[in-house]
Amino acid sequence: MGNHMTRKGSAKKKAGATTGGVLQVTTKTMSRSPSGTDIQNGSHTQFLPIDNLAKILAGISLREESVHGITASVIKKYLFPHHPELAERLFIYFHWSAKASTPHLGTTAFRQQAEKFLSVMNDDSVLESYVKIYSNLKEEGDVTPQTLKSLLMVSYTLAMGNDNIVTLLSAERTFNAVLISCFHGKESLSVSFVSNWLWQNCPRIIQGLHRYVVHVLTTAYRFGNSLLCKEESQPQLEPATPVLEQPPDALDYSQPFLPISYVWLLSTSLPSIYTQLASSDAEPHQSEDSRSEGMQALIDKMSGNICPRHWTLLYNSDQHGTGVNRFLHHVLGYKGPTLIFIRAVSSDGEKENCPTYCICSTLEWRESHLYWGDEDSMVIELLPSYRVIEKGPKLLYLNTGIRGYPQGLRAGKDPREPSIIVDQAFNSVTFERVPYRISSLEVWGCGDTKSREKQLEIKKWQVKEAEKQRVVKLSATEWLDHPDRYLLELGGRQTYNNSSS
What we know:
With 501 residues, the chain is an alpha+beta fold. It has helices at 2-12, 48-65, 72-78, 84-98, 107-118, 123-133, 145-160, 165-183, 191-201, 207-219, 260-267, 272-282, 295-302, 317-320, 324-331, 449-470, 476-480, 483-490, and strands at residues 17-19, 22-24, 312-316, 338-344, 356-361, 378-383, 387-391, 396-399, 408-411, 420-422, 428-431, 434-445.
């Protein structure tokens, strides 16, 4: 027994060292430097753009601030000069993730955190990362209405491609609708709750923002030591502004014209069939062979604009007249996806608080006594709060002529209690059992130009056929026996000019 124990102990000496008869087993542990760098197993970056960017930022910090590392002010000045809050929050997020104890961030730590940030490919994980970036990381880590509004503001500004004050003022109402729906009067919410709410209602809210950050981190090094601090070296991204806004001299955004902020927010919520032409117009389709893994796949995924440019106005009740006949005349026959905006009259009479709803259909509108629609049919509330109410098949209903069935326009999964009911005269709307008087109604087509051209051709053909029915050519023989001749004779006209016969 003793010899056995001795041999066992001698065998363990090869794996570890003993001190005073006690065996010490050595284990590898991860340690960090005060600036957040992983000392053990700190592999050198293999992504050259981030490596070059980190070296340039470290050189600038050493030259201007005498700091061996990268500071927040350098990132704010040389990477995001037009978006200082975004730069500061991104630095705080990298600093927090690296668990650095110094005010600055080490060069290696910056490389590690930047590569880790760019390696996230899942859309829901990317969304949660940005919600965390705009949370109070230094405090409880929760999200407040003000921080979420800042995230919406920077995403909207980047999507528009400019800082137009009129555009931002018109978007204030849209931001507030999102905050009301998400927070319900609460002062703060957890990161997971806000991320899940955004994922359910507007999952692509940060797609343009993430594309911009990726573009900056991967291309800024090309401009040398100046990076992006100069105006001419700013990243030239194609602005995604849709051509749906009213003229600049018309500042009353309460009038029935689709504001840009609605288009931007809807484009983050709607399925791709409503907005797919935006990305196809921006860049030609790439073959599957050209798509590679890693960073190139991320760049390809984030390319393209999220705001559509191809939406066209089909019907506006203020321009084309109010009524079911005018609605059917301008909407029926359009083959592409459509969006119906219903603006109601608010109970307090204020135009800014007008309840506004959107009915989304990917199929051509038709009259039927049955509910219809595919998986991408949706019902969305825009104001006073923004939320996706319902989505799925058999959601839409339109009947104006079939007797024995409900008349009007409806949307909802429950035929007995649909979410939206528009009466047969298109004068009132009932939303979740609350009746309102309709202020205006608009229909926008989301298909390609061919869908609109086909609809116009059909309407021209219908007009020509109607004109043919109005003019009836009669021969002289037919006129002699026509009832109209007898009526004219009764009226006192006894002679006729028959020279043409």
